Amino acid sequence: MLSSSPQGTPEVCQQQAAEASGSSLGPQHAGSLPECPTVLPARSHLCLTVRNQDEERARRTSHELRAESIPNCEESPTPTLEEVNAWAQSFDKLMITPAGRNAFREFLRTEFSEENMLFWMACEELKQESNKSVIEEKARLIYEDYISILSPKEVSLDSRVREVINRNMLEPSQHTFDDAQLQIYTLMHRDSYPRFMNSAIYKDLLQSLSEKSIKA
After folding, report:
1. Which residues, other chains included, contact 193 with Cβ-Cβ below 8 Å and sequence gap of 6+?
2. Which end of the chain is less crowded, N or C, counting CB atoms within 10 A of the terminal residue's CB?
3. pTM for the whole structure
4. Got the DSSP string for 93-125?
5. What is the residue range of 129's domain?
6. Low-confidence stretches of the chain (pLDDT beneath 70)
């Protein structure tokens, strides 16, 4: 005679089905299961990825602008003997030619003051810009590279000029650093230029061109 086991009853079958489907928590826990935990982290990861890409693009743009604005050497033909002699006549005649700026910059490098020429050149480049967003970015880079007291290439400016720059940086333009550029130009003229004229760099170049002129 078969024993009557409760395993075959409808109630037991329903309970087993409920346990198998994961709903044995009962009606009091309905709706309390957590949502899929991968949704928000996935969205956050996407936002972080986009933000990181934007920051990397901004850093890359800044790096490219820096690389463009600070050439190792300006392209210029070899100066003539007449040009090199003219450099001794005035600082303006030295600075007006790429060859003159290259030679003077080489001298400044030996005195660890090349940043003065780099700053002056960056200001000249800024004056040629017309795109507002490029002007703002280049002005920011010039400030970070040559005006900020945290920069190793900070140029020497008085407090009045620094205040002018800080006001101008509220709305950067091609002329944001005009006062500072003039002050550095004057500094190079009065301080570095006389030493350059007596330097081996200038004298050797002058002698080399003189010898070539005689042979020709």
Report:
1. 91, 94, 104
2. N
3. 0.68
4. HHHTSHHHHHHHHHHHHHTT-HHHHHHHHHHHH
5. 91-215
6. 1-73, 216
Number of domains in the chain: 1
pLDDT at 164: 98
- Residue 85's alpha-carbon distances to 79, 103, 188, in angstroms, are 10, 13, 19
At residue 106's C-alpha, the angle toward residues 103 and 109, to 5°, is: 155
Query: What is the token pair recorded at 109?
Result: 């490098």
Q: How far apart (Å, rounded) are the C-alpha atoms in residues 177 and 146? A: 11
- pLDDT tens-digit series, residues 156-191: 999 999 999 999 999 999 999 999 999 999 999 999
Other beta carbons less than 10 A from residue 94's beta carbon:
24
138 to each of 129, 142, 153, how far by Cα in Å? 9, 6, 16
CATH code, domain carrying 96: 1.10.167.10
Asked whether residue 203 is domain-assigned, the answer is yes
**Based on the number of CB atoms within 10 Å of its own CB, is 162 exposed (0-12), middle (13-18) or buried (19 or more)?**
middle
**What are the C-alpha distances in Å from 129 to residues 36, 91, 173, 196?**
53, 26, 9, 31
Residue 118 confidence (pLDDT)? 97
Do the domain assignments include residue 129?
yes
Instruction: With respect to residue 11, please indicate whether it lies within any of the assigned structural domains.
Output: no
